[in-house]
Design goal:
2 domains, single chain, alpha/beta, FAD/NAD(P)-binding domain, binds flavin-adenine dinucleotide, 20 strands, about 30% helix, about 450 residues, seven-stranded antiparallel beta sheet
Length: about 450
């Protein structure tokens, strides 16, 4: 069978490679370049969030900017408020696809960490950072059109035809199935454009989780355990889930090694230069001037295992958000307009419960004087083509099939349900492998008919 895929990011590449392995032909169309660049064509309404990275355009998509933190959306307590179809999808990822996704990324090492990621303690969220960063690579046998725009889409029960503009020329390509993989901000745009009467839900319920450093703590011996597990092939960080009894939201914070605030910046600099054998003196000085020291100490620890203190930790929070119809992605003159309001309620809920956590543990929390408009997006844009039980409450069904069509599917961040405080990459890989299996079975069935 022949598959057309729009978007060569994390989902597009995973699906294309897997379908090719199963003996199918795949053609990909992407609007970006072979070497992805940052897309900053976004306009944020209401709040001026601090956004350094937004959307990756081109091969590899947003993963070109990521740290490769891997985590699962797998805790069944988390399912409250999800539709029946979303629950079925998430359960099937947990039972069948997270392990496959981890194996694809980590090979045999997947078995060693899967127990921590897939069935974590109910109050702990584990994120795995592999030493070798995983970036998706497209198989050379897959035909790809880059810097190409989709001009029209037509389909009947048997075939999908898309007209594209590539290298100044217009082509019509056809396939048995079409899969949108243009990301949490890209796919809703394409669906709105080519299926204007589809569902009023397209582009709505945009979720992400605002992030930032919220302060510091000095850890007393044994007051909190299991912050970090080290492996030769990476580290697992354990985040603490703080469940709000009032809103039911499940915020997370991580403790990240930082420096002793009594030590001066210049001493830290000298120490690092000495550790580095004076090789990258200029570079290290530049880093100290450019990057926030909390972020720098964390990066030095994660990447090079250099830490300045085992008592001082910064508190890095990821705030869960209520699902809100008005949080949306829209388009005006090719500019993406994002309305993404965190709300005071969600922010205060997080801060209140964070303070309470430390008070209960008798740990002094040296809080930053942070305003909630200073939070950053985590670039985990999700839920904009919501999985629903029917067209009245969603855009795709539990097989990620566009409602009302037999051969059009969506698979990327846009179908990932409300995420709380998890990184979305591994869920997107798991969803892609699941859809590939489903389409392979469907293709076999269609052939046998
Ligand atoms: C700085 C940063 C750090 C991150 N860190 C992590 C992390 O540690 N762990 C984690 O799990 N996740 C992380 N993420 C998020 C993760 O990268 C994304 O969730 C994931 O890559 C999204 O995959 P996707 O397939 O949905 O979309 P993308 O990978 O963004 O791919 C979308 C593709 O579609 C193409 N496209 C868009 N519009 C069109 C169009 N109209 N026509 C044709 N093609 C189009 C784009 O060029 C791109 O290739 C991070 C993201 C950023 C920005």
């Amino acid at each position: 069978m022949k598959f057309l895929v729009i978007g060569a990011g994390l989902a597009g590449i995973t699906i294309a490679n897997d379908l090719l392995k199963k003996g199918h032909e795949v053609i990909i169309v992407d609007s970006g370049l072979f070497k992805a660049k940052q897309d900053d064509s976004h306009v944020y309404l209401k709040k001026s969030f601090n956004l350094n990275y937004t959307n990756g355009i081109g091969i590899g998509g947003t993963t070109n900017f990521w740290d490769s933190g891997l985590t699962c959306l797998s805790d069944s307590n988390y399912y409250k408020g999800y539709s029946d179809s979303q629950k079925i999808v998430l359960n099937s990822l947990r039972d069948n696809y997270y392990i496959k996704a981890l194996k694809l990324i980590l090979g045999k090492n997947a078995d060693l960490i899967s127990q921590f990621l897939i069935n974590p303690d109910k109050d702990i969220l584990n994120i795995f950072y592999p030493k070798k960063i995983y970036k998706p690579k497209l198989d050379n046998n897959i035909k790809i059109f880059v810097e190409s725009q989709v001009l029209s889409i037509n389909n009947d029960d048997k075939c999908v035809y898309i007209e594209i503009m590539s290298d100044g020329k217009i082509f019509t390509i056809n396939g048995d199935f079409l899969i949108f993989c243009a990301g949490g901000l890209g796919s809703p745009g394409l669906i709105k454009k080519f299926f204007p009467n589809m569902s009023s839900w397209v582009g709505h319920y945009l979720v992400d989780h605002p992030i930032n450093f919220f302060g510091k703590i000095i850890l007393k011996k044994n007051s909190i355990k299991n912050i970090i597990f080290k492996y030769p092939f990476g580290i697992i960080r354990s985040g603490f889930i703080i469940k709000s009894p009032v809103t039911g939201l499940r915020h997370v914070f991580f403790l990240r090694p930082t420096f002793d605030k009594k030590i001066r910046k210049s001493i830290l600099q000298k120490k690092l230069i000495a550790i580095n054998n004076y090789k990258n003196k200029k570079y290290i000085k530049l880093l100290f001037n450019l990057i926030d020291l909390d972020i720098l100490s964390d990066a030095l620890f994660t990447k090079f295992n250099i830490s300045f203190s085992n008592r001082y930790y910064s508190v890095f929070g990821m705030i869960d958000q209520s699902e809100n119809f008005n949080n949306s992605i829209d388009y005006e003159d090719n500019k993406k307009i994002i309305t993404w309001d965190i709300t005071n309620i969600n922010y205060n809920d997080f801060i209140f419960n964070l303070r309470k956590f430390f008070i209960d543990k008798k740990i002094t929390f040296l809080e930053n004087n942070l305003n909630y408009q200073e939070l950053s997006s985590a670039a985990h844009y999700s839920n904009t083509c919501k999985i629903g039980d029917d067209i009245k409450n969603g855009v795709v069904d539990l097989n990620l099939q566009l409602f009302g069509s037999s051969n059009i599917f969506i698979c990327d961040g846009s179908v990932v349900p409300k995420i709380g405080a998890i990184n979305t990459g591994l869920t997107i890989v798991a969803l892609s492998l699941r859809l590939s299996d489903f389409l392979n079975n469907k293709a076999k069935y269609n052939r046998d008919e």
